[in-house]
Design brief:
By secondary structure, the chain is α/β, with parallel strands linked by helices. About 30% of the residues lie in helices and about 30% in strands.
Length: about 270
């Protein structure tokens, strides 16, 4: 099935309305996953990632970083954080948010399409793709090439962190519609599950306050993968799964009931 607008993310993430729809995503979830990530590296016993190696020596790339809420928290644990996003609007918000860090190191904000990273091969220790910033494209080949690009950028034994919805959980728990009020406007979010290939398609409709305004409609479409599919896709790019969680609370992953898939992959060859 063809996505209605394959470039939906360019339009939607650039619009200020995006931040208003996801304003309920506060720092609590971000704090939990950042703690999960830092705890992982404290216990991860492999070359370049042991308790004797300071986090200040690692370069961490936060992909699809949005307004920087994860980057700010990661910056407290890692001294070299790069916050990368395609949206100029979200990066400007991130730069404003980074000002609160004052005397601390400030993440480097970079605007780029993450399909072609403006970074040298074998230059990054950790890549994080958090809050469902993977699965935006139409074909599996595009996602395979994306993972290859990320793997090329990682150093040997570098780690990729993927934070994604769990397909089976989404199938049985998808909220088909909800309505809220944002800045006085009625906003309706409608979701549908596409079976082949598995995707969640979502429309966000902003209804006008008066006759002088027009109805605005934005779309999202995210490809969902099973754990085994992701293991296969990542293996093509030399990435080996080393740890899986099913929630931000570090619960074990259970295929039918876990809300998330938080996956840690290690680069095993260049």
């Amino acid at each position: 099935m063809t996505i209605l607008d394959p470039s939906w993310y360019k339009t939607w993430f650039e619009n200020p309305a995006y931040s208003s729809v996801y304003a309920h995503r506060d720092n609590e979830d971000a704090k939990l996953i950042v703690k999960l990530i830092t705890d992982f590296f404290e216990s991860f016993n492999c070359k370049n990632y042991n308790s004797e190696n300071s986090n200040s020596e690692k370069i961490l790339l936060d992909l699809g970083s949005g307004n920087g809420r994860h980057a700010i928290l990661l910056n407290e644990k890692f001294d070299n954080v790069i916050s990368l996003d395609l949206s100029r609007t979200l990066l400007l918000n991130a730069r404003e948010n980074f000002k609160s860090l004052k005397d601390k190191n400030i993440p480097l904000a970079v605007r780029s399409d993450y399909r072609k990273l403006p970074l040298a091969n074998n230059s990054i220790d950790i890549i994080c793709s958090l809050f469902t910033s993977f699965g935006y494209f139409e074909t599996d080949l595009e996602h395979t090439k994306l993972l290859e690009e990320w793997s090329n950028t990682l150093k040997q034994d570098g780690v990729l962190v993927l934070d994604l919805p769990n397909l089976e959980f989404v199938k049985t728990n998808l909220v088909k519609e909800n309505t809220s009020t944002i800045s006085g406007k009625e906003v309706t979010e409608r979701r549908s599950f596409q079976v082949t290939p598995p995707r969640v398609n979502k429309s966000i409709t902003f209804y006008p306050l008066n006759d002088s305004e027009e109805t605005e409609v934005f779309n999202e479409s995210v490809r969902l993968y099973t754990l085994q599919e992701l293991i296969k896709l990542c293996s093509i790019s030399g990435l080996e799964l080393v740890k899986t969680y099913g929630s931000y609370d570090k619960e074990d992953y259970i295929e039918l009931t876990s809300p998330r898939m938080i996956l840690f992959f290690k680069k095993i060859f260049i």
